[in-house]
Amino acid sequence: MAFYSSNFIYDGIISSEYGLRISTFGGEEENFSLANVELITQSIYRKPKVFLLGINQTPVLEIPITITVPQELSAEETSVISRWLFGQMGYKVLQILQPDMQYIYFNCIFTGPEIIKIGNITRGFNAVITCDSPYAWEYSKAITYAYNPNNFIVFDNIKINNTSDNPDYTYPTVSFTMNKFGGYLNITNTSDSNRVFRFYDLLPNEVIEINNDLQTITSSTGQNRIENFNYYWFRYIPNLNEFIIEGNITEIEFTNIFVKKMM
Known about the structure:
Helix content is 4%, strand content 52%. By secondary structure, it is mainly beta.
Protein backbone atom coordinates (compact mmCIF):
# COMPACT_ATOMS: atom_id res chain seq x y z
CA MET A 1 0.00 0.00 0.00
CA ALA A 2 1.36 3.39 -0.98
CA PHE A 3 1.90 6.34 1.35
CA TYR A 4 1.10 9.47 -0.59
CA SER A 5 3.11 12.15 1.19
CA SER A 6 1.39 11.70 4.55
CA ASN A 7 2.06 12.78 8.08
CA PHE A 8 3.01 9.95 10.42
CA ILE A 9 3.47 9.14 14.09
CA TYR A 10 6.51 7.17 15.22
CA ASP A 11 7.28 6.26 18.81
CA GLY A 12 4.53 8.65 19.93
CA ILE A 13 5.89 11.71 18.07
CA ILE A 14 4.02 13.24 15.12
CA SER A 15 6.06 14.17 12.07
CA SER A 16 4.35 17.55 11.60
CA GLU A 17 6.44 18.84 14.53
CA TYR A 18 9.36 18.82 12.08
CA GLY A 19 7.38 19.43 8.87
CA LEU A 20 8.14 15.89 7.67
CA ARG A 21 6.01 13.86 5.26
CA ILE A 22 6.42 10.17 4.40
CA SER A 23 5.95 8.61 0.98
CA THR A 24 6.66 5.39 -0.89
CA PHE A 25 6.68 7.22 -4.21
CA GLY A 26 9.96 7.98 -5.93
CA GLY A 27 11.46 8.51 -9.32
CA GLU A 28 11.62 4.76 -9.90
CA GLU A 29 9.15 1.94 -9.40
CA GLU A 30 9.11 0.89 -5.76
CA ASN A 31 8.91 -2.77 -4.71
CA PHE A 32 8.53 -4.19 -1.24
CA SER A 33 8.16 -7.64 0.28
CA LEU A 34 4.74 -9.23 0.74
CA ALA A 35 3.59 -11.87 3.22
CA ASN A 36 4.77 -15.20 1.91
CA VAL A 37 5.52 -18.69 3.19
CA GLU A 38 8.68 -20.79 3.31
CA LEU A 39 7.95 -24.48 2.82
CA ILE A 40 9.53 -27.04 5.15
CA THR A 41 9.57 -30.30 3.20
CA GLN A 42 11.06 -33.78 3.39
CA SER A 43 11.91 -35.98 0.42
CA ILE A 44 12.17 -39.76 0.54
CA TYR A 45 14.55 -41.84 -1.54
CA ARG A 46 13.00 -42.98 -4.85
CA LYS A 47 9.74 -41.16 -4.15
CA PRO A 48 8.87 -38.33 -6.55
CA LYS A 49 6.58 -36.60 -4.05
CA VAL A 50 7.88 -34.37 -1.26
CA PHE A 51 6.06 -34.22 2.09
CA LEU A 52 5.07 -30.88 3.56
CA LEU A 53 6.10 -30.78 7.25
CA GLY A 54 5.11 -27.18 7.88
CA ILE A 55 5.58 -23.57 6.85
CA ASN A 56 7.32 -20.45 8.09
CA GLN A 57 5.58 -17.15 7.43
CA THR A 58 8.30 -15.03 5.89
CA PRO A 59 9.84 -12.59 5.09
CA VAL A 60 9.18 -9.72 7.46
CA LEU A 61 7.53 -6.74 5.79
CA GLU A 62 10.03 -4.21 4.39
CA ILE A 63 8.91 -1.01 2.68
CA PRO A 64 11.32 1.50 1.10
CA ILE A 65 10.21 5.02 1.98
CA THR A 66 11.18 8.65 1.53
CA ILE A 67 10.81 11.27 4.27
CA THR A 68 11.01 14.87 3.10
CA VAL A 69 10.37 18.49 4.07
CA PRO A 70 9.06 21.28 1.78
CA GLN A 71 12.07 23.54 2.31
CA GLU A 72 15.24 22.39 4.06
CA LEU A 73 16.58 20.94 7.32
CA SER A 74 19.27 22.60 9.35
CA ALA A 75 22.17 20.57 10.73
CA GLU A 76 20.61 20.74 14.20
CA GLU A 77 17.19 19.58 12.93
CA THR A 78 18.81 16.76 10.96
CA SER A 79 20.58 15.56 14.11
CA VAL A 80 17.39 15.63 16.22
CA ILE A 81 15.34 13.83 13.56
CA SER A 82 18.03 11.20 13.02
CA ARG A 83 18.14 10.50 16.75
CA TRP A 84 14.34 10.09 16.80
CA LEU A 85 13.92 7.92 13.70
CA PHE A 86 17.11 5.94 13.22
CA GLY A 87 19.26 3.60 15.29
CA GLN A 88 16.47 2.46 17.62
CA MET A 89 17.18 -0.51 19.89
CA GLY A 90 13.72 -2.05 19.49
CA TYR A 91 10.53 -2.02 17.43
CA LYS A 92 8.36 1.10 17.68
CA VAL A 93 4.80 1.80 16.57
CA LEU A 94 4.49 3.61 13.24
CA GLN A 95 1.10 4.98 12.13
CA ILE A 96 0.59 6.53 8.70
CA LEU A 97 -1.96 9.35 8.90
CA GLN A 98 -4.00 8.76 5.78
CA PRO A 99 -7.69 7.70 5.64
CA ASP A 100 -7.24 4.15 4.36
CA MET A 101 -4.64 3.31 7.05
CA GLN A 102 -6.23 4.82 10.16
CA TYR A 103 -7.01 1.43 11.76
CA ILE A 104 -3.59 -0.19 11.35
CA TYR A 105 -0.02 0.35 12.45
CA PHE A 106 3.43 -1.08 11.80
CA ASN A 107 5.67 -2.38 14.56
CA CYS A 108 8.97 -1.49 12.98
CA ILE A 109 12.47 -0.02 12.92
CA PHE A 110 13.74 2.39 10.26
CA THR A 111 16.84 0.85 8.68
CA GLY A 112 19.37 1.85 6.02
CA PRO A 113 18.95 5.62 6.37
CA GLU A 114 20.40 7.91 3.72
CA ILE A 115 20.33 11.72 3.71
CA ILE A 116 18.75 13.38 0.67
CA LYS A 117 20.67 16.49 -0.35
CA ILE A 118 20.10 18.91 -3.19
CA GLY A 119 23.34 20.82 -3.51
CA ASN A 120 24.27 21.53 0.10
CA ILE A 121 20.67 21.60 1.29
CA THR A 122 19.29 18.66 3.30
CA ARG A 123 15.76 17.85 2.14
CA GLY A 124 15.08 14.57 3.94
CA PHE A 125 15.93 10.89 4.16
CA ASN A 126 15.57 7.60 2.34
CA ALA A 127 15.14 4.52 4.53
CA VAL A 128 13.41 1.16 4.83
CA ILE A 129 10.58 0.29 7.22
CA THR A 130 11.60 -3.11 8.64
CA CYS A 131 8.71 -4.72 10.55
CA ASP A 132 8.51 -7.45 13.18
CA SER A 133 6.33 -9.70 10.99
CA PRO A 134 5.10 -10.09 7.41
CA TYR A 135 2.04 -8.05 8.36
CA ALA A 136 0.75 -4.74 9.62
CA TRP A 137 -1.36 -4.82 12.81
CA GLU A 138 -4.88 -3.67 13.52
CA TYR A 139 -5.43 -1.80 16.77
CA SER A 140 -6.84 -4.03 19.47
CA LYS A 141 -10.62 -4.38 19.73
CA ALA A 142 -12.48 -5.84 22.70
CA ILE A 143 -15.76 -7.74 22.50
CA THR A 144 -17.56 -8.00 25.86
CA TYR A 145 -20.51 -10.15 26.95
CA ALA A 146 -22.17 -9.42 30.30
CA TYR A 147 -24.60 -11.73 32.13
CA ASN A 148 -26.97 -11.57 35.09
CA PRO A 149 -24.80 -11.94 38.24
CA ASN A 150 -27.63 -13.78 40.00
CA ASN A 151 -27.71 -16.60 37.45
CA PHE A 152 -25.99 -19.72 38.74
CA ILE A 153 -24.88 -20.93 35.29
CA VAL A 154 -24.66 -19.10 31.97
CA PHE A 155 -25.42 -20.76 28.63
CA ASP A 156 -24.78 -18.70 25.52
CA ASN A 157 -24.01 -19.07 21.82
CA ILE A 158 -21.81 -16.42 20.21
CA LYS A 159 -20.10 -15.81 16.89
CA ILE A 160 -16.80 -14.04 16.30
CA ASN A 161 -15.53 -13.28 12.81
CA ASN A 162 -11.76 -13.62 12.57
CA THR A 163 -10.88 -11.05 9.87
CA SER A 164 -7.13 -11.57 10.25
CA ASP A 165 -5.13 -12.15 7.06
CA ASN A 166 -3.07 -14.75 8.92
CA PRO A 167 -3.96 -18.18 7.42
CA ASP A 168 -2.90 -19.85 10.69
CA TYR A 169 -4.65 -19.77 14.07
CA THR A 170 -5.10 -16.45 15.87
CA TYR A 171 -4.73 -16.43 19.67
CA PRO A 172 -6.61 -13.56 21.39
CA THR A 173 -6.54 -12.44 25.02
CA VAL A 174 -9.52 -13.67 27.05
CA SER A 175 -10.61 -12.35 30.44
CA PHE A 176 -13.63 -13.36 32.49
CA THR A 177 -15.16 -12.73 35.91
CA MET A 178 -16.68 -15.49 38.02
CA ASN A 179 -20.07 -14.92 39.64
CA LYS A 180 -20.75 -15.06 43.39
CA PHE A 181 -20.98 -18.86 43.27
CA GLY A 182 -17.59 -19.59 41.65
CA GLY A 183 -17.00 -22.76 39.68
CA TYR A 184 -16.05 -23.31 36.04
CA LEU A 185 -16.02 -21.98 32.48
CA ASN A 186 -16.23 -24.01 29.27
CA ILE A 187 -15.94 -22.43 25.82
CA THR A 188 -16.44 -24.86 22.94
CA ASN A 189 -15.42 -23.76 19.46
CA THR A 190 -17.79 -25.76 17.28
CA SER A 191 -15.99 -24.39 14.21
CA ASP A 192 -12.68 -25.90 15.38
CA SER A 193 -13.59 -29.59 15.81
CA ASN A 194 -15.41 -28.80 19.09
CA ARG A 195 -12.19 -27.75 20.80
CA VAL A 196 -12.90 -26.96 24.48
CA PHE A 197 -11.19 -24.20 26.49
CA ARG A 198 -11.85 -24.99 30.16
CA PHE A 199 -11.19 -23.63 33.67
CA TYR A 200 -12.56 -25.25 36.81
CA ASP A 201 -12.60 -24.95 40.62
CA LEU A 202 -12.37 -21.16 40.56
CA LEU A 203 -13.36 -18.88 43.44
CA PRO A 204 -16.40 -16.57 43.65
CA ASN A 205 -15.80 -13.15 41.98
CA GLU A 206 -12.36 -14.25 40.76
CA VAL A 207 -11.06 -12.50 37.64
CA ILE A 208 -8.93 -14.49 35.18
CA GLU A 209 -6.97 -13.07 32.23
CA ILE A 210 -5.36 -15.36 29.65
CA ASN A 211 -2.93 -14.17 27.00
CA ASN A 212 -3.27 -17.14 24.69
CA ASP A 213 -0.57 -15.91 22.33
CA LEU A 214 2.07 -15.77 25.08
CA GLN A 215 0.37 -18.60 27.04
CA THR A 216 0.16 -16.73 30.34
CA ILE A 217 -2.60 -16.85 32.97
CA THR A 218 -3.21 -14.17 35.61
CA SER A 219 -5.68 -14.47 38.51
CA SER A 220 -6.97 -11.68 40.73
CA THR A 221 -6.34 -14.03 43.68
CA GLY A 222 -2.62 -14.26 42.89
CA GLN A 223 -2.89 -18.04 42.67
CA ASN A 224 -1.31 -20.11 39.91
CA ARG A 225 -4.31 -21.27 37.88
CA ILE A 226 -2.47 -23.40 35.32
CA GLU A 227 -3.52 -26.44 37.38
CA ASN A 228 -7.17 -25.40 36.93
CA PHE A 229 -6.83 -25.28 33.14
CA ASN A 230 -7.12 -28.02 30.52
CA TYR A 231 -4.15 -26.66 28.46
CA TYR A 232 -6.23 -26.06 25.31
CA TRP A 233 -5.33 -22.42 24.63
CA PHE A 234 -8.13 -20.35 23.17
CA ARG A 235 -7.82 -19.72 19.44
CA TYR A 236 -9.69 -18.71 16.29
CA ILE A 237 -9.64 -20.44 12.96
CA PRO A 238 -9.75 -18.09 9.93
CA ASN A 239 -13.13 -16.49 9.21
CA LEU A 240 -16.26 -17.28 11.23
CA ASN A 241 -15.98 -18.98 14.65
CA GLU A 242 -19.03 -20.20 16.56
CA PHE A 243 -18.78 -20.79 20.33
CA ILE A 244 -20.85 -22.33 23.09
CA ILE A 245 -20.21 -20.61 26.44
CA GLU A 246 -21.15 -22.42 29.65
CA GLY A 247 -20.12 -21.55 33.18
CA ASN A 248 -20.46 -19.59 36.40
CA ILE A 249 -19.50 -16.17 35.04
CA THR A 250 -20.84 -12.62 35.02
CA GLU A 251 -18.71 -11.26 32.17
CA ILE A 252 -16.29 -12.39 29.48
CA GLU A 253 -14.17 -10.27 27.13
CA PHE A 254 -12.22 -11.19 23.98
CA THR A 255 -9.45 -8.79 22.96
CA ASN A 256 -8.42 -9.20 19.33
CA ILE A 257 -5.43 -7.88 17.41
CA PHE A 258 -5.76 -8.98 13.78
CA VAL A 259 -3.00 -8.77 11.19
CA LYS A 260 -3.36 -7.34 7.69
CA LYS A 261 -1.43 -7.93 4.50
CA MET A 262 -0.20 -4.75 2.86
CA MET A 263 -0.46 -4.55 -0.92
